[in-house]
Amino acid sequence: MEQDQLLKQITDTVRACGEIILHADRSRSCIDEKAGHANFVTTYDRKVQQELQERLLRILPEAVFVGEEEDIHASIAEGYAFIVDPIDGTTNFIKDYHMSAISVGLALDGERYMGVVYNPYLNEMFTAVKGQGACLNGAPIHVSSEPLCNGVVLFGTAPYYEELNRKSFEMAYDYFRKALDVRRSGSAALDLCSVAAGRAEVFFELRLCPWDFAAGSLIVEEAGGKVTTAEGGALTLDKPCSMLATNGCEQGI
What we know:
- The chain has 253 residues and is of the alpha+beta class.
- It folds into 2 domains: 138 residues, 2-Layer Sandwich (Fructose-1,6-Bisphosphatase, Chain A, domain 1), CATH 3.30.540.10; 99 residues, D-Maltodextrin-Binding Protein, domain 2 (3-Layer(aba) Sandwich), CATH 3.40.190.
- Helices cover 31% and strands 27% of the residues.
- It has a 7-stranded mixed sheet, sandwiched between helices.
- A hairpin with a 2-residue loop joins strand 5 and strand 6.
- Helix 1 packs antiparallel against helix 2.
- The longest helix is centred in the first third of the chain and has 20 residues.
- It is globular and about 50 Å long.
């Protein structure tokens, strides 16, 4: 299947699943807690994931599917693998705070190949294909060229990992002193896309799972940005890691 056709089928699927989020009945959301502080899953996380799994595997039957709401995850080392967060920003979704997204990364032989992040509330569809650039609703996007002193820093608090909470806020304070301001949205996928679109200069979080960043990190890179772990290492799609995404300017603190 050609790249353009594959990307269109994936984005059409994601857009259709976004309708489930937009028309959710929160009185029937049936919230469950997972391991970690404030780590929730709703019936809609599961519903969206099931719909994504069925539709995406019809597009690429040979692919494996790695979803956040699964207990056992398949190997992504060979062939195609969808790495999916059905609702990134579940707490936002529960609170009807419109910063949630569907995130679909497609890996090929263990490497990030395509990324799709969709905020249905704003109808913003971020996409990227390895080596082909990044787009927002079909129009090319690029990271900003501003230095940190003229920049906005986005961050995640690693809320599920209490041992990282204080360090997260200490880092945010250090950035706050050298940037224009800091922001906390509650969706790593959307924060990464904000860096890609030039709306912010830096995003960091001290622990994320692959489904949180498989799509968004590629979108940042294809928009001209730089993505590493917070320690400066390479990202891994087979286990959690820290994340630092920048516009590529020197943003050290």
